[in-house]
Amino acid sequence: MYTIIALVISITLQLIAAIVAISLTKITRYNISWVMISIALIFLAIRRIIELIPFLYNKFYEDILIIDQWIGIITSVLIAVGILLVKKIFNQIKEADRIRKHSEKRILNAIIKTEERERLRFAKDLHDGLGPIMSTIKMSVSALSAKDLDTHGKAVLANLMDVINQGVDEIKEISNNLSPHILNDFGLSSAISGFISKISKTGALTIQFTTNLKDERFGSTVECVLYRAACELINNTLKHAKASNVNLVLNHVDNLLLMSYSDDGIGFEYEDLHSETSGMGYCNIRSRLGSSNGHMDIDTAIGKGFKANIYIKLN
After folding, report:
1. Phi, psi of 180 (to 5 degrees)
2. What's the whole-number mean pLDDT along residues 183-197?
């Protein structure tokens, strides 16, 4: 009795497996290996049914035994050939994954190029539109005769000139941060050096920058990605790390661009990289690197500072 129950359960499970396999045939684009495995599962269920018959009709035992043996042989052949041919399915999956990754890179590249194009447009609008207006205001204010003003008026005029000068400088600073002309004109090393120079003037950080780059150019997307990554890392150190020193190394070795960054700040737990607030900047860096055959490794812990290594494989 227990044997019959076990056979019934086995038949049920194998029929379910066969039905599921058949339902997936269309997804595999009717791959011959999957069709053969599906048929083999059906035959396995049939064998279990045949094994059940002698318990109900004992007189058919010998005939059923022969049929069972032949079905077993056919099933074995189907499974063996199906498994040998199943490699085609994995190749299809691999190819689909390659196409997906290629599409993602193209989309990321398009996003980055669009973003940089809009940054450049906005920077030009600021520089060419608001800049001349501020300069005109400055000349108009300068034309006022300070001789006819009392002490208070002169102080107001001087303060107004200071504010206008600050506004002009701020417009230049914002325009340059949006789209640094030095990156487009002179390359990655000069752009990073210029950004570091501005940070160093504040006295907030001591940044040591070393590189073996000279006049090499690596394509606008690659240069933009690495420049934005360096700026993001330095800004994160300024905002969160409470660090005094930063070491930044940028080297070109064979067909790789390598950037190593470290600070002596307070560090943080690695799990914080996945939070919506702390990890957003690092996620942006990784997303940008994904468009340029790059990746970033991070090593940090509370009290142990922060280290990041960025690798970009050049085409």
Report:
1. -65, 115
2. 87
CA distance 207 to 205: 6
CA distance to 107, 111, 117, 119, 128, per residue, from 114 (Å): 10, 5, 5, 9, 21
Q: How far apart are CA 2 and CA 15, in angstroms?
A: 20
pLDDT of 152 reads 76
Q: Is the pLDDT of residue 262 over 90?
A: yes
* Helix/strand/coil for 11: helix
59 touches 91 (CB < 8 A): no
CA-angle at 221, arms to 129 and 251, nearest 5°: 120
At 49-72, the pLDDT tens digits run 777 776 666 666 666 777 777 777
DSSP SS3 for 308: strand
| Residue 311 reports pLDDT greater than 80 | yes
Q: Mean pLDDT highest for which of 44-53, 67-76, 189-198, 287-296? A: 189-198
State CA 294 to chain mean position distance: 9
- 220, 116 in Cβ contact below 8 A? yes
- The helix/strand/coil state of 290 is helix
Cα angle 254-255-258, degrees, rounded to a multiple of 5? 85
Q: 33-64 burial string, b = 16+ CB within 10 Å, else e?
A: bbbbbbbbbbbbbbbbbbbbeeeeeeeeeeeb
| Residue ranges in the chain assigned as alpha helix (H) | 2-23, 32-56, 61-85, 87-125, 131-143, 151-178, 181-186, 188-202, 220-236, 280-290
- Angstrom CA distances, 73 to 51, 76, 104, stand at 15, 5, 47
C-alpha torsion sign, points 150, 156, 158, 160: negative
SS3 (DSSP) at 148: helix
SS3 of 234-250: the string is HHHHHHHHCCCEEEEEE
What whole-number distance in Å separates Cα of residue 184 and Cα of residue 232? 19
CA distance 48 to 52: 6
